[in-house]
């Protein structure tokens, strides 16, 4: 079977996008997606994203496999790419604004194409209780803010935030000095995180400008993570380190993130670009 695809990237976080509107099950298995993501033997990507028919009152459904074949609940950079891909499939005029209601495993997420080509996403409310992350770092109905976690013979103070998918945030003096390849896998598979974890190391340059590096669950070191940037802003607000709106600088470029606190949703604005089209098989 031949499957058409378009490769997209959002700040260098790259995805193979597949038009799956004809059926409710993804056209590829997790094992096939893992092969497609291989950077030597496949197309090469951090994940494969499928646009499926909507459910309930939504326009479409998004499903995603990480490059290791696991299925996360949400992907921030991916949903910006998905919005651009849908506009392309629907043949919408370039530069026009549109928004879509997208069903995901993290709930309904609403990306909006802006006239300047950027995509602004209502990412929903952050979930802060230990049982929602999930983590054993506090009692189930408590938040996890600045809790000690031993990794690699060091004690780290971590704050945990779920944006539908789990994130563990650590504020450090110098983010460039972090040995991501060594620490990332140890955080990801730590017994305190029963569903593994995405890990962000963050340096606060100013209250409105933070630098972060990320080790993603199921994908390793990536150039950007949209849900991660949202979780970082929330952790920065919870620990009084940053303003309610800030630029989060990632290795692949900046994202604008805003959260008014409490039960308000988090907003993320950033780019998404097509790279090339092709077919599998
Ligand atoms: N890169 C993504 C997050 C993708 C999912 C993540 N690896 C997980 O397993 O939760 C983003 O931009 O949010």
Automatic annotation (TrEMBL):
Keyword Signal: no
Keywords: Amino-acid biosynthesis, Cytoplasm, Isomerase, Lysine biosynthesis
GO cellular component: cytosol
Any one GO biological process: lysine biosynthetic process via diaminopimelate
Enzyme Commission identifier(s): 5.1.1.7
Catalysed reaction equations from the record: (2S,6S)-2,6-diaminopimelate = meso-2,6-diaminopimelate
Site positions (Could be important to modulate the pK values of the two catalytic cysteine residues): 167, 216
Active site residues according to the UniProt entry: 75 (proton donor), 75, 225 (proton acceptor)
InterPro entries (alphabetical): DAP_epimerase_AS (IPR018510), DAP_epimerase_DapF (IPR001653)
Pathway: Amino-acid biosynthesis; L-lysine biosynthesis via DAP pathway; DL-2,6-diaminopimelate from LL-2,6-diaminopimelate: step 1/1
Pfam families for this protein: DAP_epimerase
Residues that hold substrate according to the record: 13, 66, 76-77, 165, 198, 216-217, 226-227
Keyword presence, Iron-sulfur: no
PROSITE patterns in the record: DAP_EPIMERASE
Protein origin, superkingdom: Bacteria
Subcellular location(s) of the protein: Cytoplasm
GO molecular function, one term: diaminopimelate epimerase activity
Assembly behavior: Homodimer.
UniProt record similarity statement: Belongs to the diaminopimelate epimerase family.
Entry function: Catalyzes the stereoinversion of LL-2,6-diaminopimelate (L,L-DAP) to meso-diaminopimelate (meso-DAP), a precursor of L-lysine and an essential component of the bacterial peptidoglycan.
Name assigned to this protein: Diaminopimelate epimerase
Source organism phylogeny: Bacteria, Bacillati, Cyanobacteriota, Cyanophyceae, Acaryochloridales
């Amino acid at each position: 079977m031949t499957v058409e695809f378009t490769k997209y990237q959002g700040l260098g976080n790259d995805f193979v996008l597949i038009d799956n509107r004809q059926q409710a099950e993804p056209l590829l298995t997790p094992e096939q997606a893992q092969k497609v993501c291989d950077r030597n033997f496949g197309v090469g990507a951090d994940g494969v994203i499928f646009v499926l028919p909507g459910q309930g009152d939504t326009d479409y459904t998004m499903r995603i496999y990480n490059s290791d074949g696991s299925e996360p609940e949400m992907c921030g950079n991916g949903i910006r790419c998905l919005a651009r891909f849908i506009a392309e499939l629907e043949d919408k005029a370039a530069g026009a604004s549109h928004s879509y209601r997208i069903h995901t495993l993290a709930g309904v997420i609403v990306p909006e194409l802006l006239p300047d080509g950027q995509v602004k996403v209502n990412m929903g409310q952050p979930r802060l209780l230990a049982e929602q992350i999930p983590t054993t770092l506090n009692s189930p109905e408590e938040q996890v803010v600045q809790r000690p976690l031993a990794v690699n013979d060091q004690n780290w103070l971590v704050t945990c935030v779920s944006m539908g998918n789990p994130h563990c945030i650590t504020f450090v003096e110098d983010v460039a000095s972090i040995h991501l390849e060594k620490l990332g896998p140890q955080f990801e598979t730590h017994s305190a995180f029963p569903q593994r974890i995405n890990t962000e190391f963050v340096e606060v340059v100013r209250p409105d400008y933070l630098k972060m590096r990320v080790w993603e669950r199921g994908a390793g070191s990536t150039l950007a993570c949209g849900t991660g940037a949202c979780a970082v802003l929330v952790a920065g607000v919870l620990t009084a380190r940053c303003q309610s709106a800030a630029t989060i600088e990632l290795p692949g470029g900046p994202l604008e993130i805003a959260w008014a606190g409490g039960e308000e949703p988090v907003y993320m604005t950033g780019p998404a670009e097509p790279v090339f089209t092709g077919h599998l098989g």
